Amino acid sequence: MSTATLMFIGHRAAEARVMEALVAAGADDITLAQSRLMQRLDLRNVNSTGMRLTDLAEQARVTKQTAGALLDQLERSGYVVRSPDPNDARARLVTLSDKGMAVCRAAGEEIAKLEDEWRAHLGTRRFEQLREALLALREITDPYQ
After folding, report:
1. Pairwise CA distance, residues 63 & 53, whole Å
2. What are 83's strand-pairing partners?
3. 8-state DSSP, 78
4. Which of 43, 45, 74, 142 has the fewest CB atoms nearer than 10 Å to its CB?
5. 138 pLDDT exceeds 70?
6. Which residues span the domain enclosing 74?
7. CB 80 within 8 A of CB 97
8. What are the pLDDT digits (tens) for 72-121?
9. Total of domains in the chain
10. How many C-beta neighbours within 10 Å does residue 60 have?
11. CA-CA distance, 79 to 95, in Å (whole number)?
12. Beta strands in the chain (DSSP E)
């Protein structure tokens, strides 16, 4: 099995756990596709001014139309807010609402639990080596870092 597939399996397991935690937290109206956009809006990943739809679409690897439809749904549900871009009157910025930030906090808490489980399974040294290796790979795989 390829290393890329092994990384995907771990990511898929983490994503499933986060989605289960969101349902338990009452955010059962968020789809996996919507959550992938929200990950990019998480305040740890973006400055407080928000992101443009085109940037979100590019980073999530979806079309602008798909990102727009997903953001429409998230906005209707109260998870995101769109506001005018002060630097470009034609553009709008997307930010998390308070409700959206609460969902991202719940997701972050579940990820922390999952990483604790992985650390316990692998041992601290091996877990930290895994993290260091993935961070090093990010240097050549993530154009959005």
Report:
1. 10
2. 93
3. T
4. 142
5. yes
6. 3-141
7. yes
8. 999 999 999 999 988 888 888 999 999 999 999 999 999 999 999 999 99
9. 1
10. 17
11. 9
12. 51-52, 80-85, 88-96
Crossing angle of helices 32-41 and 98-122, in 10° steps, is 100
Q: How far apart are CA 60 and CA 70, in angstroms?
A: 11
Q: How many CB atoms lie within 10 A of CB 70?
A: 23
**pLDDT at 144 exceeding the cut of 90:** no
Tokens 């109260």 found at: 78
What is the pairing mode between strands 80-85 and 51-52?
Answer: unpaired
With H, G, I as helix, E, B as strand and everything else as coil, classify residue 91: strand
The residue count for the chain: 145
Tokens (6 digits) for 55: 């940037």
- pTM for this entry: 0.86
> Tokens in use for 5?
């597939």
Beta bridge partners of 82: 94
**Phi, psi of 103, rounded to the nearest 5 degrees:** -65, -45
